[in-house]
Amino acid sequence: MRKACQGVWGAVAWFGAAALVPLFVRDAFFLDLLILILLWGATAAAWNVAGGYAGQVSLGHSVFFGLGAYSAALLGTKWNVSPWIALVVGAALAVAMGVLIGFLSNRLRGPYFVLATIALSQVFLIAGSRWRGFTSGSEGIPVPFRPGFWTLGLVDKRVWAYVILVLAVGVYLIQLYLERSRRGYQLAAVREDEDAALSLGVPARRLKVAAIAVSAALTAMCGTLWAQYVGFVDPFYVFSVDLSVRFALAAVTGGIGTALGPFLGAALITTLETYLRAHLAGIGAGLVGIYLILYGVALILIMRFAPQGLLPWLGRWWRRPASSAAS
Questions:
Q1: Can you list the alpha helix ranges (DSSP code H) found in 231-309?
Q2: 41: three-class secondary structure by DSSP
Q3: CA distance 244 to 233
Q4: Does this model's pTM top 0.85?
Q5: CA 262 to each of CA 25, 41, 248, 266: distance values in angstroms, whole numbers, following the listed order
Q6: Per residue in 244-296, pLDDT tens?
Q7: Which of 13, 96, 43 is nearest to 254 (CA)?
Q8: Closest CA to 251 of 103, 87, 61, 117
Q9: pLDDT of residue 53
Q10: Which residues on neighbouring strands pair with residue 142, listed in sequence order?
Q11: How far is residue 209's CA from residue 195's CA, in Å, rounded to a whole number?
């Protein structure tokens, strides 16, 4: 109970600090960094619903992200539809795709499920880059800017920060529910040993499909807001395996299967990436990619010394002085 309360208070401090930053910070660079940390944290947390709590490790979640992004771009460009409606449409399409994937790959486990999700993302990448009549092909689609909150044409980055913060808190609360509810315990049983869970009467396959569907809907919502914020949708980015790896990497780095871990991992990765790219990418032709090397070394060190993720490692470090004092 004490550990759970510490986790909740940690989340309160985390999101409370995120809510206070726009009140005191006016610099566009730092506000943009905050928005990206919250957005990638929410996306990693959405991945964590399926990958962390249900054990359905996917490297094809960019499919759902891309569906949300293209919903905003196509509905806004072709039919002048509000991004809020596009968000719902994108989430519905992602749920349908998630349920389909869940049923078709229900019996696949481990690397076979991962390979199936990668293949699906490549199918969508090819379709998005070749279907010029509908998606404009590899040229991408600029998302129209229409001023107003209903159209998410927001000039003030502080407003954007609060919009993304609401989504991030919502995804966190869904993860918290999975940590403490009966369904969450059943998902944990399926993740640890599906055959044993089935023998105890746990509806394992149905729960896995539901987890993928919820994860897909949340990821699509993040994709819609990302497209509206960035203003451009490129099929080679939104359907790429690299993007799916980013979601998984943030969750694994922060602590897979924990509610706050994906946000911590996203903060570390996004901050490190932004800093290294800004300070090292332009110092010379031979050092253009050095920030990627340092970025990879940092991740290797984290996996070496904190294999369960930063959040569990910090939890052990925090409890160590208390246990020493008690003894």
A1: 235-238, 241-254, 261-280, 290-305
A2: helix
A3: 16
A4: yes
A5: 24, 6, 9, 6
A6: 999 999 999 999 999 999 999 999 989 988 887 777 655 554 444 565 676 67
A7: 43
A8: 61
A9: 95
A10: 232
A11: 16
